[in-house]
Specification:
This protein has one domain: Gcn5-related N-acetyltransferase (GNAT) (Aminopeptidase, 3-Layer(aba) Sandwich). It has five helices and seven strands, in the order E-H-H-E-E-E-H-E-H-E-E-H. The protein has a seven-stranded mixed sheet with strand order 1-2-3-4-5-7-6. 28% of the residues are buried.
Length: 150
């Protein structure tokens, strides 16, 4: 069952950065989440221009998206995660939609690995290879402009 993208409002998670559910999902969006790295990321989301939005269903946090606003209407997706038991329900698309709505719909970008490329393509992003950023790991730049967002 797909969840329509506009039915669940985005939650501002800045005031909830120490809640276990937020930290668990945020850690799942990080490559190698050590306690030190998680603390650094948590501190970033307290800075101006950084936003952490979430989606709850039946009182439970099921997804989050972290953005760094780089210019009016433009942001880089730094983190995106959906709880394992809530995947394939449209929550990731909903998070992308909420990010676009917050920005006023101009440009979203994300750097990701091959595993997530299909998701971004299904959400209207164009994908460009960045080559091997790390030995044996190809990275991709995903971009979604306002024509695709609106």
């Amino acid at each position: 069952m797909r969840i329509p993208c506009n039915e669940t409002p985005g939650l501002d998670l800045r005031t909830r950065l120490y809640e276990p559910a937020v930290l668990e999902l945020l850690a799942s969006a990080m490559g190698f989440p050590t306690a030190e790295r998680l603390e650094q990321v948590r501190a970033r989301y307290q800075e101006a221009g950084w936003h952490l939005l979430g989606i709850e269903q039946e009182g439970r946090l099921v997804g989050l998206i972290g953005l760094q606003v780089t210019a009016p209407g433009q942001a880089i997706i730094q983190h995106i995660a959906v709880a394992a038991d809530a995947r394939r329900l449209g929550i990731g698309r909903m998070l992308i939609g909420q990010a676009a709505a917050m920005l006023g719909g101009r440009r979203l970008t994300a750097a990701t690995d091959a595993e997530a490329v299909g998701f971004y393509q299904r959400c209207g992003f164009t994908v460009q290879s960045l080559g091997e950023k790390y030995p044996g790991v190809e990275r991709f730049l995903c971009t979604r402009d306002d024509e695709a967002i609106k």
